[in-house]
Write a structure and sequence with these properties.
This protein is mainly α. It has 15 helices and no strands. The relative contact order is 0.13. Bound molecules: fe (ii) ion.
């Protein structure tokens, strides 16, 4: 039997449900939903943002930890969200809070906690690198961050649906690999995220099909590779949690972690990647603090 063929009646049923959009999509809780809305509004100020985040004590507490982490910390310890906004900046706080809120509240899957933990850490890392690449190339920063954060959202969603449907554990990740683009796109569309971000979720493994979101797909591919290079060193990664990457990367990057095509498309050179990787401590602080 080929490894990608459905292996049981339940897996086949799940694959069919995925194909016709029939799986239950995770809800986006209120605070992150409003943070997504706030992300596309120019009228959000520091006070209303702090007010929104304060409604969710888990998010507020972890955001303060990030603000006080070594990578962001100043001499004075931050004790309020208003101070966090002053130190990190309004846009950074909004993005970090969104990442934390999605991470904390959307996916809890018995038996796959470690796998989903790695995936969510990588999503946050990819979001941060996507934002930094966008800064470097003078592209829209907010859009890049959200594209990095959500591009693989379908993975934990498929795992959740597969586990609930009784798919055998060894087949779950293979299913997630195959269907995460389409399922992620359905979720993001359901959450009201912009069509370009939905297109990135759907096509990020095939940027040539992404139309005008192709460049954003390349950006996310590079950001994802940098996140893996930064966050997976020395980490005991559950088997199959991370897709094997291409074997053509610069040798100083984690072995084979990045392909040349997206780098060429973005006009990124080895110097640029070295600069980005030079801030790996900030990413680790963001993820570990989060
Ligand atoms: Fe993916």
């Amino acid at each position: 039997m080929q490894p990608h063929e459905p292996t049981s009646i339940s897996e086949k049923r799940l694959a069919e449900r995925v194909a016709r959009g029939g799986i239950t999509l995770p809800m986006l809780p209120e605070v992150p939903r409003r943070l997504v809305t706030a992300a596309s509004s120019d009228t959000t100020d520091a006070r209303s943002l702090a007010e929104l985040i304060r409604r969710d004590s888990a998010v507020a507490g972890r955001l303060l930890r990030v603000a006080n982490s070594a990578a962001f910390g100043g001499a004075v310890r931050i004790v309020s969200l208003q101070q966090a906004v002053a130190r990190l900046g309004l846009d950074s706080v909004r993005r970090i809070a969104l990442a934390i809120a999605v991470d904390a509240q959307v996916f809890r899957i018995p038996g796959f906690e470690a796998t989903v933990r790695v995936q969510l850490d990588l999503a946050l890392g990819a979001a941060w690198f996507a934002q930094e690449i966008a800064r470097l190339r003078r592209l829209p920063v907010e859009e890049a961050f959200l594209a990095g954060l959500f591009h693989d959202l379908g993975r934990p969603a498929v795992i959740q649906a597969a586990v609930a449907d009784g798919v055998p554990e060894w087949a779950v990740l293979e299913l997630a690999e195959r269907h995460h683009g389409e399922v992620g796109a359905c979720i993001m569309s359901d959450w009201g995220l912009p069509p370009r971000l939905v297109a990135v979720a759907r096509h990020h493994h095939h940027p040539e099909s992404a139309g005008d979101a192709g460049g954003l797909c390349h950006l996310v591919t590079v950001a994802d590779a940098l996140a893996k290079a930064t966050l997976l060193q020395g980490v005991d990664v559950p088997a199959g949690a991370v897709q094997r990457a291409s074997a053509h990367g610069p040798p100083w990057l984690a072995e084979g972690a990045i392909a040349p095509e997206p780098l060429a498309e973005l006009g990124l050179y080895a110097d640029d990647l070295a600069t980005l990787l030079g801030r790996a401590d900030t990413v680790r602080a963001l993820v570990r603090g989060a």
